[in-house]
Amino acid sequence: MSFFDSDIIQQEAKQLFEDYQSLTKLGGDYGKFDRDGKVIFIEQMEALMERYKIFMKRFELSDDFMAKMTVEQMKTQLGQFGISPQQMFDQMNLTLERMKAEIK
User: Domain of life here (predicted)?
Assistant: First the structure.
């Protein structure tokens, strides 16, 4: 069975995408949140980023050709912006840390 044929992988991908879309939409109103709302938003973003890292690690560890190709495509796409996947995660974490510092 292909990596992408897995019901677990398909469900997790779908859930990650939906959660990301919801948080991104919600983030448009971030400036209107009170302190507690900002804390909750940041925590949810951190949890989503951790889930995404784990999901991507599954791709990296898989022996499936299509999974490996997906990782390479991501590296290529990010490379066009001059960053690696790790740098992308580092930048996202830095942004969340700045957001935390602003609400303290």
Answer: Bacteria
